[in-house]
Amino acid sequence: MRQSAGAWITFTLSAVLAAAVPCRAKDYSGEPEHLGLLGAAEESIFGDVYAEPTKWRSLSLTTFFSEGWDQAWASPVAGGGGAPRQGWLNAADGVFYRLAIGTFSWAHDGGDTYDGALRVYTPLSRRFELRSDLPLIHSTPQAGGGHHTAFGDLSLSPTFMLSESEDVSQLAYVQMTAPTGDVESGGDIASVTPGYEFWTNWWRGLVVRGGANLTVPYNHTGVRETGARTSFLGDLAAGYYFTPHDLTPIGDLVWYVATNLTQLTDNRGPSTTTVSFTPGMRTHLGANWYLLAGVEVPATNPKPFDYKLLTGIMKVY
Fold it and tell me: What is the pLDDT of residues 108-128, one digit of tens each?
C-alpha cells in the first residue's frame, strides 16, 4: 500500500515539474495599479475584475515575495489552448476565482450518507485568496436506525498563487478546519492541511489539473473518539471543453475524469489506500450560473461507499 502512495507521489511530482516548464505568454502591456493591501482587497472583491481589455498579467515564482500582493486580482485569460480556467467537482482548483458554489452529495453505502455545503472563493490580491467551506448539513445513518443530521466542521483556507501564465498556474494553501461538527456524524475534528495544486492548458480544450495535500488531525476528540487519522491525498484530473461560453445552457461544456488517491499514513491502524474515479461535467447555464455533476466510484477495497452522486450550483460574480 505504501508503494502505491509512493508511486502516486512520484507521478504527481512529475506532473508538477512538467507544469513548471516555462511556457509562452502574450505580451500584455502595462502594469496593474499598486493599491496597497486594503485597496487591492477592496478592488478584488467589489471591482470589475472581468473588465476588457483585461487587467490580468502573468506572475512569476521568482517574484513571489515582491509582486502582486498590493495589486487587485483580475479574472485570468483563457489558457494557451483556449480553455477557460474553471473549477470541477472532486478535482483540484489550481486557479483563483470569485464565486460561490453550493454542493450536495449522496453516498450509497447501505445506510446512505448525504452532505450539503457552501464554498466561497474570495480573492484579496493577485497573490492571495481565501477559500471558505461552510458544511451546512451532514447526515449519517445510525446503528439503531434513522439518521443523525448536524452541521459539519468549518474550514478556512488561506491560498497563495505561486506562479501563473497563460498555460500554467500553481498555488499553495493551508486549510484549517475547526471542530464545529459533532462526534455522532463523524465531525468535531480539528485539523490542518497544507497542499499544492496546479492547472494546465497547452492544447485546444484539454485541461489537466491536480495536486497533493496532507491532513493532520490534532484535537483529542477527533483523534480518540472519531478515529480521525493523518492522511495523504493525491489527485489528478483531465477534461476537454467542447462548446463556447455563450452557447447556453450548454456553454463551456466540459467532460472530465478525476482520480483521487487517499493513503492513511500514521501508525494508529492499517495503512489503507483508497483510489476512486469521478467522471464529471460542468456547463454554463447563462447569466454566470453553472451546473456541475459527477459520480465518484471507489476502485479499491475496503470501499468507503458503493458510489457517490455529486451535484453543484455555482454563481460567478
Answer: 876 688 899 999 999 999 999
Separation between Cα atoms, residue 147 and residue 17, nearest integer Å: 46
Q: Which three cell numbers stand for residue 313?
A: 450550483
Handedness of CA 162, 258, 179, 228 (dihedral sign): negative
User: CA-to-CA distance for 144 and 194, rounded, in angstroms?
Assistant: 37
Tell me the whole-structure pTM to 2 decimals.
Answer: 0.87
> Which residues does the chain have with pLDDT short of 70?
1-30, 110-111, 144-145, 185-186, 222
Pair 195, 209: CB distance under 8 Å: no
Q: Whole-angstrom Cα distance, residue 44 to residue 125?
A: 6
Rounded (10°) CA dihedral 37, 39, 44, 46:
150
* Cell numbers found for residue 49: 475584475
Which domains, ranges and CATH numbers included, belong to the chain? 2-316 (2.40.160.40)
